[in-house]
User: Fold this.
Amino acid sequence: MRARVLIFALLLTYGVTVLTACSGSEGYQIYRANCSGCHDTGRSNTPTLVDNVYWISRESVPLEERIAKTIAGDETGKWGIQPPRGGNPKLTDLEVQMAIEWMLVQVEKEK
Ligand code: HEC
Assistant:
């Protein structure tokens, strides 16, 4: 019985790791295809992933609000215009979220 529990726990851990790795690389693919044109280059004053001044200034804003802004688009930002869904209306909410998640992990790494 104990061995079974152990195997189950191992499977769970392994499974979750695989899942995380997948969504990470999917987030990266979505980012590359839809977001990097601005967020890699800093085009039209877009904050790049190493623009800590911008990212630190956003930390106090709840994540849901930041996700909603990326999905709906925002023309009122101080830095510039975030187009709705990065300009690709075909992206689902989940895909936009995966790209954001990937971005924010990179932002943390660059700090
Ligand atoms: C046309 C250029 C452009 C594209 C394409 C773009 N962004 Fe942005 N993004 C911006 C700008 C400019 C800002 C800064 C807005 C501001 O002043 O707060 C921003 C801000 C953000 C933020 C921070 C939001 C916050 O409230 O903290 C996130 C997250 C983000 N973008 C995600 C994405 C994702 C994901 C994609 C692709 C699906 C994407 N962006 C595509 C220009 C762009």
Notes: The mean pLDDT is 87. The CA atoms of residues 8 and 14 lie 10 Å apart. Residues 34-35, 37-39, 46-47, 58, 61, 66, 69-70, 77-83, 85-87, 91, 96, 99-100, 103 surround heme C (CB under 6 Å). Helices lie at 2-34, 36-39, 52-58, 63-72, 93-110.
